[in-house]
Design brief:
single chain, 3% strand, elongated, 11 helices, Helix Hairpins
Length: 307
C-alpha cells in the first residue's frame, strides 16, 4: 500500500511546486501580472494546466506568452496524469468502503470497475452545495448561477463570463480542491456515460473476428487461428474441424459477452485480497480447444472402429 501511495504523493507534490513556481516566474517576466494578487496568479497557473482558462488573467508580454506555451506543454500532461490517478483511487476507495461495510455486491468489481451512476449524481449534488457556499454570487444559498459556474469549470469549458477570485491562501486552497474534485467527478461521469453509449453502439451486433485475436502461447504472441492450426496438426484434425471450432469460438464469445457475470457472492475479505489481481474477460468462459479437439478425435476413432 505504501509503495503505491508514495509515488502518487510525489506526483501531487511535484504538481503543487510546478504551479507555484509558474506563478512566481510570471511575476518576474510580466509587469501586468506582477500587479495581480499572488494567490490569483497561482489560480491562473492552475487553470492553465487544467485547461479551464477563465480568461480574466492573461500574459501581456512576449516572454510571458512564450513561457505560457512551455508551461502548458509540460504542465497539462502532469495535471491530467494526476487527475486520472485520483479518479482511479476514488473508484477503488468506493468499492473498498462497501466491502468493509459488509455490503452485498452482486458483481465482484474488477480493475476497470466504475462508480455507479446514482453515486456520481449524489456526489455531484453534494459538491454543488459546497460550491454554492464557496462561490456564492448572491444572497441566496444555491442558484443556477452557482451550478452553471461549477459545471463549466468542471468540464474545463471556462467561457470567462464567470471566474473565481482567490483573495486569500485558505480560499485559494479551497478553490483548487473544489475544482480538482469536480474535474475528477466529471471525468468519472463521462467514463460511465461512454460505457453506456458503447453498449448502445454494439446492441444487437454479433462478435466477429475471434480467429484474429492475439493470445500468448508458448512464449510468443500468435493469433487464435494459428494456435488452433497448431493444435489441429498435433491431433491430426481436418481443416473442416478447425473451421467448426473457429465458428463455435465466435458463438461462445458472443454468448459470454451477452451473459451477466457470475452471481456468486464472495467473502468480503476475499474480495479485498483478490481485487488488485483479478480481471474478467469474455475468454474466461471459453472451453479448452485442446479438450474440444481431443473429444472430437475420440468420436471419429470410435466411428472408424465400429465400421
Amino acid at each position: 500500500m505504501i509503495r503505491v501511495f508514495v509515488p502518487q504523493l510525489l506526483i501531487v507534490t511535484l504538481l503543487v511546486i510546478y504551479v507555484i513556481s509558474g506563478a512566481y516566474v510570471y511575476t518576474l517576466i510580466d509587469p501586468k501580472l506582477a500587479d495581480e494578487n499572488f494567490t490569483d496568479l497561482v489560480l491562473f497557473t492552475f487553470s492553465t494546466i487544467t485547461t479551464i482558462g477563465y480568461g480574466n488573467i492573461s500574459p501581456s508580454t512576449e516572454a510571458a506568452q512564450l513561457f505560457t506555451i512551455g508551461f502548458g506543454i509540460l504542465g497539462i500532461p502532469l495535471a491530467l496524469l494526476t487527475l486520472a490517478n485520483m479518479g482511479k483511487y476514488l473508484t477503488k476507495s468506493y468499492w473498498m468502503i462497501l466491502v468493509c461495510l459488509g455490503k452485498n455486491i452482486p458483481r465482484r468489481p474488477t480493475g476497470d470497475a466504475k462508480l455507479p451512476l446514482k453515486t456520481i449524481i449524489i456526489l455531484f449534488f453534494i459538491t454543488f452545495i459546497f460550491g454554492a457556499v464557496l462561490f456564492h454570487h448572491t444572497g441566496r444559498k444555491i442558484t443556477m448561477d452557482d451550478v452553471y459556474f461549477s459545471v463549466i469549470s468542471f468540464a474545463t469549458v471556462g467561457f470567462g463570463d464567470k471566474f473565481p477570485k482567490a483573495g486569500s491562501t485558505m480560499r485559494l486552497i479551497s478553490m483548487i480542491i473544489y475544482l480538482t474534485w469536480g474535474m475528477i467527478l466529471t471525468a468519472t461521469l463521462f467514463s460511465v456515460l461512454s460505457s453506456y453509449l458503447r453498449k448502445v453502439h454494439y446492441l444487437g451486433r454479433r462478435f466477429r473476428g475471434a480467429r484474429d485475436v492475439h493470445v500468448w502461447f508458448g512464449g510468443k504472441s500468435m493469433k487464435v487461428s494459428q494456435l488452433l492450426e497448431v493444435v489441429a496438426k498435433e491431433f491430426n484434425a481436418s481443416p473442416r474441424q478447425v473451421g467448426r471450432v473457429l465458428h463455435d469460438l465466435d458463438n461462445l464469445i458472443t454468448t459470454a459477452i451477452a451473459e451477466n457475470e457470475a452471481k456468486a457472492k464472495l467473502n468480503a475479505q476475499l474480495q479485498m485480497l483478490q481485487l488488485p489481481h483479478e480481471t474478467h474477460s469474455p475468454f474466461s468462459k471459453i472451453k479448452n480447444p485442446l479438450l474440444m479437439f481431443n473429444n472430437q478425435n475420440r468420436s471419429d476413432n470410435e466411428e472408424e472402429a465400429e465400421v
